[in-house]
Fold Phage shock protein A (PspA) family protein.
Amino acid sequence: MAIFQRITDILKANINDMLDKAEDPEKMVKQIIIEMSEQVDSATEALGQAMGSQKLAARQLEEAKRASADWQQKAELALKSGNEELARRALDSKVGVDRQIAEMQQQYDALSAQVDKLKDQVKVLKQKLDEARARQDILIARSRMADAQQGVATAVGAASSTSAFSKLDKLEQKVAQKEATAEAFTELNGMNVDPTEDEFAKLQHAADVDAEMAALKAKLGM
């Protein structure tokens, strides 16, 4: 039946491939579940209608069989009563009903086979839907995990160029450069000492040495 073609397409589709192509996999998988549920509901409704037709056909078949049996009894009664003509007319009606019974039996058998097939299909569809619902949470979790991994990878990649991490590295380099410059200026200042001050320093140094020498001689009694 055509009603099952769309459901079959959905069940045969690779949900993971559909997720790969979807802009929002989480919404996509939820929509798939909704669509499958709607199709299963439609299939169940179609099955219910077919089963209703089956019951109606069964009821009509039983009524026809009772009518055939009734004409049979009437024919027997007429013949026992010696009225062969009446018995013939009863049998004529019975034969007509029996032809209808044969046709109705064929229709009922075909309808019953169709109903059995529909029952099997609906059962499979419901099982597939249950499986899809069970996979729904897993697929959504996988999708969110993939988004998280992508976000981390993007952040790590950005850290080597224009991110806050890169700015911090550049700032550290500037501070190091300033420190080096300051050290250089300090060295330059040390090299530019006033010559006069340097002479006084040498005199003071010589005086300190003489004082140490005098102290040492006095200690040794020299």
User: Anything to note?
Assistant: The chain has two domains: 2-158, 165-220. The chain has a mean pLDDT of 79. The chain has six helices and no strands.
